[in-house]
Amino acid sequence: MKVLVTGSDRPFGRSVATRLREVHDVVGVGRGASEGIEPVDLSEPDQVAPLVSGVEALVHADAFEIEGLSEVSHERTLDEAARGAYVLLDEAQKAGVARAVCISTLELLRDYPDGYVIDETFRPRPEADALSLAPYLVEQTFREFARQGPLVSICLRFGAIDRPDGTPGDLAGRAIDRALVAPLDGTRSRWFLYHVSGSDRFPIRGAKQSPFSFETEG
After folding, report:
1. Residues 145/89, Cβ–Cβ less than 8 Å
2. What gap in Å lies between CA 97 and CA 99, rounded to an integer?
3. Is 127:135 a contact under the CB 8 Å cutoff?
4. CB 197: neighbour CB atoms within 10 A?
5. Are the CB atoms for 62 and 90 separated by under 8 Å?
6. Cis-peptide into 150, omega within 30 deg
7. How many CB atoms lie within 10 A of CB 184?
8. pTM for the complete prediction?
């Protein structure tokens, strides 16, 4: 399978691209150039269109580690995240990409009181700043494209990777593996949202159920 991975210029996106290369033909892109990474402005259709040509699935990790782009203003961060997601999905849909995986963050739900056990039915509570709003707007963009079809979108919310009460890196990797191959096309929905965490606060419930049927034990 040919897979496009955005955000590959940052640690998590780079690890995702490296993992997927073991079994897939991976195109890794990022906002900055680095070894094996093609720089691209996702808000520019002319740059995105050639990248999605022939791609069967994409993993959008651009907004997951967005706080690492410290040199970028908050206004530009928010604009590039929202427009980038829209242009990416618009061009992907035109190119016939069948599946899009959105990597989002459980930080959108941290505002709930301590002691709450939070599943996918809880509404996100982003803070009024670009670093929090960016992943939320990306989620909403993926959701709206899925509603229009025919693109199938899977949103995976992770905690901080390999941090206490976060999401172990291997667990995140296996969830992405599953998102790329789970038999979702035959379902009535084209939008799927799952929490994947090693924390009791965000238990893995939905992802274990059909049709995703994620096995947490590797």
Report:
1. yes
2. 6
3. no
4. 22
5. no
6. yes
7. 18
8. 0.94
Return the percent helix, strand and coil in the chain, to nearest 5: 35, 20, 45
HSE, side-chain direction, 13 A CA sphere, residue 118: 25
Residue type for 166, please? Answer: G
Tell me the residue type at 21: R
Q: Tell me if 208 sits within 8 A of 174, measured CB to CB.
A: no
Structure tokens given for 45? 């259709």
pLDDT along the chain (218 residues), means of 10: 94 94 94 77 95 96 77 75 95 96 96 94 91 92 92 96 94 97 85 96 95 88
Are 85 and 78 spatial neighbours (Cβ–Cβ below 8 Å)? no
Place of tokens 């509570």: 125
| Neighbour count for residue 35 (Cβ, 10 Å) | 6
Helix (H) or strand (E) holding 135: helix 130-148
